[in-house]
């Protein structure tokens, strides 16, 4: 049974940092495409960062230079390192590996 677990969210002050984790279990193959999304209250879900073909990384302009997907990670586990967080980063964050259903997300709240 395929299972996706997201974790690492929390409350942090502006300028702080958090690292989100996303792990898929029960999936025998290595997953080469995945995306991090976020959804703020009253807004549409937006793409934050992605990995293509296992080694092509892309970031939304709003997070470029602050958010990073570390390259060193276990199979089918991804992290989102978030530095210099801003109040506008407040949202529920989701990871979306290809061929895996959406999870519940993890809440990130950044206070001013």
Q: Explain this structure to me?
A:
The protein is an all-beta fold and 112 residues long. It is 0% helix and 49% strand. The chain has a six-stranded mixed β-sheet, with no helix packed on it. Strand 4 (34-39) and strand 5 (46-52) form a beta hairpin. The chain is globular. The termini are far apart.
Globally, the shape reads: globular
By secondary-structure content and strand pairing, the structural class works out as mainly beta
Q: Helical element count? A: 0
Q: What characterizes the major β-sheet? A: 6 strands, mixed
Elements, N to C (H/E): EEEEEEEEEE
Numbering strands along the chain, what is their spatial order in the largest sheet?
2-10-9-4-5-6
Task: Set out the fold topology.
Blueprint: E1 3-7, E2 10-13, E3 18-25, E4 34-39, E5 46-52, E6 56-59, E7 67-68, E8 77-82, E9 91-97, E10 106-111
Parallel strand pairs: 2-10
Antiparallel strand pairs: 1-3, 3-8, 4-5, 4-9, 5-6, 7-8, 9-10
Defining key terms:
49% strand, 4-stranded antiparallel β-sheet, 112 residues, 6-stranded mixed β-sheet, mainly beta
Summary of the model, kept short:
This protein has strands at 3-7, 10-13, 18-25, 34-39, 46-52, 56-59, 67-68, 77-82, 91-97, 106-111. The chain is mainly β.
């Amino acid at each position: 049974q395929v299972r996706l677990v997201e974790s690492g969210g929390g409350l942090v002050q502006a300028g702080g940092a958090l690292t989100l984790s996303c792990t898929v279990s029960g999936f025998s193959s290595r997953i080469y495409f995945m995306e991090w999304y976020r959804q703020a209250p009253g807004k549409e879900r937006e793409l934050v960062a992605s990995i293509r073909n296992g080694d092509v990384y892309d970031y939304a302009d709003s997070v470029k230079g602050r958010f990073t997907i570390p390259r060193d990670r276990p199979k089918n586990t991804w992290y989102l390192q978030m530095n210099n967080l801003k109040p506008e980063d407040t949202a529920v964050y989701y990871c979306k590996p290809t061929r895996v259903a959406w999870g519940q997300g993890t809440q990130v709240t950044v206070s001013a």
